[in-house]
Amino acid sequence: MRVIDHWIGGTRATGTGTRLGDVYDPALGEVAAQVRLASAADLDAAVATARAAFAEWGEASIAKRQQVLFAFREKLNARKDELAAIITAEHGKVLSDAAGEIQRGLEVVEFACGMPHLAKGGYSENASTGVDVYSLKQPLGVVGIISPFNFPAMVPMWFFPIALAAGNCVVLKPSEKDPSAAIWLAELLTQSGLPDGVFNVVHGDKEAVDALLVHPDVASISFVGSTPIAQYVYETGTRHGKRVQALGGAKNHMLVLPDADLDLVADSAVNAGFGSAGERCMAISVVVAVDSIADELIGKIKDRMGKLVTGDGRRSCDMGPLITREHRDKVAGYVEIAAADGAEIVVDGRDVVADGAADGFWLGPTLLDRVPTSSRAYTEEIFGPVLSVVRVSGYEDGVALINAGPYGNGTAIFTNDGGAARRFQREVEVGMVGINVPIPVPVAYYSFGGWKASLFGDAKAYGPAGADFFTREKAITSRWLDPSHGGLNLGFPQNV
Ligand code: NAD
């Protein structure tokens, strides 16, 4: 059985940990490889390597760091099909979707190529007579990144290009469920001229995460994953003196007003509900339909769902399997819960006949209507191909429902009424809002992050917020002394 190693100091490393985890090919339902699960000592070794590398990388010129990122961008562009195949084999998402996540990650690489501009400080000449004040943006040192299974390439790329461009060294702890993409990216960074030790990958589970969270030489943590773990990471990391951004789970609603074009709405609901088998933090999981158009909209969504092919992502299917058998069963369990609580099963994905191996972790697209908002199928994040419909009487009712939820990652409104859309963008308590756009993932030069239980800490990912997160500012007040500056004065300095 193939064993997936760590990447420390510019090369594969076995470490000293003895535990291994299974990595599945979810479309086959078979273990395809095993991954090393780091011990705390392995994590220490990676941090020590990164810290040693920081002595040079932190001092490298902006031009040198930029050259590495430009080279990385070229290589990744040229070889992205290889990476997409790796993602599909371990995650299960269809190849075109894997290519899409790489493209969105590349956007951040391109943004980070412009880091010289973002790393500029300010300068105020003569802030006081003969005194200049200016600011520097310096790297933090060793930064930790902990990523989820659902975007094994894109989520690490939300962080490491900017972290590296700013002069930091990185220890990445990717999801142990699909760890190969991170190693492939690490190798490509080395081939792009990144010095050894600047970017390290340590595989593992809670043991590795915990070691990273308390390590005195780790300056910051960037985490993406489920809400309970995000909260734990935020609380533990900050308690140990680190800067932490921790992005959590989601339950994204799409409000449909009666004046919307229901064909376009149905397309969007299906694409955003079932793309990547619903395993996206920006997936639409609840369609909030105004009662007067709900039946017509459900009919249109159902028609489209009939055309979707669930199967092996390497074939030309629309939707792949779920990540593990346990997760597949958990998601299917929510269909039972919803039905027991009084929801109507409009399309039941549990009966799906997949275009793939019999043992794949299949669950077809599922549509539930009249889901009670007290049901766990409504209150909890399902993270699978289950789209719920909740009916409301109108705009106010819809916004109140969205704002009552604990999450605040993404949301969308579908309408042709500009006034209603403008009210929605102002009133809805969610961090990323789409107006007739169902998955409003901001472009790389804005920042990504939700509100409420979808983000712990105040730092969003990438964009200007990312550039701030991975640098710390120093303010300099400078005077070049001449004899006229002499004399004793113990008062607080004032600007004159
Ligand atoms: P997860 O929380 O199970 O795991 C995320 C990371 O935390 C992994 O690296 C994992 O090894 C580690 N981890 C898991 N349990 C841990 C524990 N007890 N202690 C310490 N570390 C632990 O999440 P997942 O299942 O990999 O990913 C899906 C979740 O991520 C969903 O909730 C989804 O909404 C969320 N997500 C959020 C965003 C966002 O931007 N807000 C983006 C992608 C995914």
UniProtKB/TrEMBL annotation:
Keyword Metal-binding: no
Protein keywords: NAD, Oxidoreductase
Signal sequence, start to end: none
Record domain Aldehyde dehydrogenase: where: 21-476
Domain of life the protein comes from: Bacteria
Entry's EC annotation: 1.2.1.27
TM spans (from-to): none
InterPro entries (UniProt xref): Ald_DH/histidinol_DH, Ald_DH_C, Ald_DH_CS_CYS, Ald_DH_N, Aldehyde_DH_dom, MeMal-semiAld_DH
Alphabetical list of Pfam families matching this protein: Aldedh (PF00171)
Protein name: methylmalonate-semialdehyde dehydrogenase (CoA acylating)
Organism of derivation: Nocardioides fonticola
